[in-house]
Amino acid sequence: MTEIVGELLTLLIMAAALGMDAFSVGLGMGMYKLRLRKIFEIGILIGIFHVIMPLAGILAGKLLSEKFGTLASWIGGLLLILLGAQMIWSSLKKEAESVITPVGFGLLLFALSVSLDSFSVGLTLGIYGAKTVLVIICFGIVATVQTWAGLLLGRKVRGWLGTYSEALGGAILLAFGIKLLGTFFG
């Protein structure tokens, strides 16, 4: 039982780290003064993408771990480190980002862009044999809630928190990657 609670806690922290992208972009998108129905739809779509992408990653990761064993585990740890570093780096860049409108194709593009990193994490979790259903439920629910929180908060606040939340998410993923690699070194 303790093992399941530990795994659930780890997955929730990872899900929160991955959802920081959706939260921070949601802050900016919340400036559109979207209707609550649209905020609801956006959150659900982001949650669905945060289920599909890690599921695809997990399936690919399980295939890799069966074929390549320890090498695949190393790759998984390195992917988390690279993904975390990339999130931190992109949060530090001061360039203006192009705004994607939250309708039609723009909304699908937005959902895909904020969930791409969950594919890499899913790949790593697949390599390590994480429980698939638990992963996708955690990732989907947390991403949905964080998207809603970002959009709603964006209606109230002007984007001062966005950059810092993405950097925090990157730092968490970086730490998990280092921890996974640390198991090989002692």
- Proportion of residues in extended strands: under 5%
> What series of H and E elements makes up the topology?
HHHHHH
Largest sheet composition: none
Q: Which class best fits the helix and strand makeup?
A: mainly alpha
Helix proportion of residues, in percent?
Answer: over 70%
User: What does the average pLDDT come to?
Assistant: 78
Number of strands: 0
Distance between the termini: 26 Å
Summed up, the domain count is 1
Large-scale geometry: globular
What is the CA-atom radius of gyration, in angstroms? 16 Å
Number of helical regions: 6
Topology:
Blueprint: H1 2-29, H2 36-68, H3 70-92, H4 104-127, H5 132-156, H6 162-185
Structural write-up:
- This protein is an all-alpha fold and 186 residues long.
- The protein has one domain (2-185).
- 84% of the residues lie in helices and 0% in strands.
- The protein is built from six helices and no strands.
- It has helices at residues 2-29, 36-68, 70-92, 104-127, 132-156, 162-185.
- Helix 2 runs antiparallel to helix 3, helix 2 runs parallel beside helix 4 (104-127) and helix 3 runs antiparallel to helix 4 (104-127).
- It is globular, with a radius of gyration of 16 Å.
- The model has no long low-confidence stretch (mean pLDDT 78).
- This is Putative manganese efflux pump MntP.
- It is found in: Cell membrane.
